[in-house]
Amino acid sequence: MDINRRTVIRGAAAVAAIGMAEGAAGEASASTASSAGTSSASSAYSLEFDSTAWSYDSANDVYYQIGKVYVTDPAATDYENLSIYVPGAYLTATANSDGTTYTATVNAKGTVGAHSGRTAPIVIPVNTPGYAGQKPATSYSYSSVSKYLEAGHIYVWPGMRGRDSSTSTRSDAAPWGVTDLKAAIRFLRYNRSVLPGSTDDIVLFGMSGGGAQDTVAGASGDSALYEPYLRSIGAAMRDAKGRPLSDAVAGVMAWCPITSLHEANLSYEWNMGQFASTGTRASGTWTSAYSTDLAKAWPSYLNRLGLRDEHGRRLRLTESSSGIHLAGSYYDHLIEVITTSLNHFLADTTFPYTVTTRTGPPGSGSTGTTTTYETVADYIAYLNTSSTWVTYDSTTNTATVSGLEGFVKSQKTASKPVGAFDGYSRAQTENGVFAMGLNAPSHFAPLTRDVIKANESTYATYSDWNADYGSSAYDSDFAQKDSVGKDMAWRADAYNPLYYLSPAFAGHRRSQVARHWRIRTGIMQGDTGNTTEINLMLALHNYGIHDVDFATVWAQGHTMAERTGDSTTNFISWVESITKK
User: Whole-model pTM?
Assistant: First the structure.
């Protein structure tokens, strides 16, 4: 199988069409465009930060500004603006005559903890569940930023468009969310002489779709794929002295990143779907056959990635006597990750251990059922209720996981239908991520289209098949172009972190990849396969990124999963560890 051949070829053509390698995009920018991209002289918005417009929270010693538009030609001013919150020690300010605002300059010697007005890290939240838009702040609240400021961090909250913010005249689908995030980062660097903090230490953090988008941003620093989008909104491409600006970041904190959407339909069925037999996977349905075909297609894709473990061992899937390719070095590595997660749980947990299973959605008020396991042995017996897939050694307090099927059936059942991401009827959330406009969800995954195309005549023999699900619908969507003239292959490449990290794709080593990563995922989540975060971690290591702090957390689902402690405190501690001067 030629791995996502259309994506590779068209991605390469996209780079060639721009006339530069992505790593050289900044140099071309300096010689061919104004600092604000394609902005017009009549633009109502300036890239200059107004140092005379600070507000001050005297009770908590915080200077802040809210609602600064960060591009010169915004498509959506209600989203494309940011707020910045700064510990008072980092600025020297005088009150203005209006009695409410302040003029401030950077106090390089002002300190909070180990940080100063010039070295403080800048943290940026990416709170975009389901790739939704992130609405900017409209009023000041200290409680939402207090922990970060008390640690000496500068908190920047950018609005960014997303799946749910399109209008009848404007599509905000991918890659506009990450484009806006990059534009905000460029704005900070454009104004670094008047803003406190170190723009060399920008750290993104987000969960789910937010974790996915900060992952994409962290992998795609200065990628040429984003240049036409950035220019169209008047993002800062050069500083005031004509030097190229960067949108690369130093660090990424990603909880449960729902990413690698280009292949997610396949991996979901291999990882979980092949062990399910209800709903869309029930026998006698075309979607059951589709599930099997997706699962069978994934090993070929995986093997083409050329992933290696920390010992340099090539990771591959091979055929197995039962199930779909449940053998090989990659399979063994996956079982090792699952086993490690369980053993971390056993080491971290004091028994009796009580777990509450919610019977309703979050916020419903439902508390669910509570079960207490008095001993480790009781808990292991629970895991082995349906089949024995865990063995336990009480002398070492360690467990061994024997296989994927038992784990999935016990702890990680498929919660999404077949076609979990690029849905055959375009009804999945991610179809909206790549929409062509308001209420116009689109197909986006060539690997999925190829499975449909290869098996369409077989699917047509099932009574529940609909011709609208055929491969021609995918081809039609792939051919459409967005407002800057780019087709689906370009857009999907832009939102695929492996496009930048894996040598299987044309974008490999044509971006500036963040040098620090912290990835956490709840092992029980049915939102994506274990393979999503594992492959991201492996690709980062294989790329040469040495600082990848990875853990998949037992007994937690789709949440800001942590082995111990709380997510905010752990994130702040991690930022401290990677930004020490």
Answer: 0.92
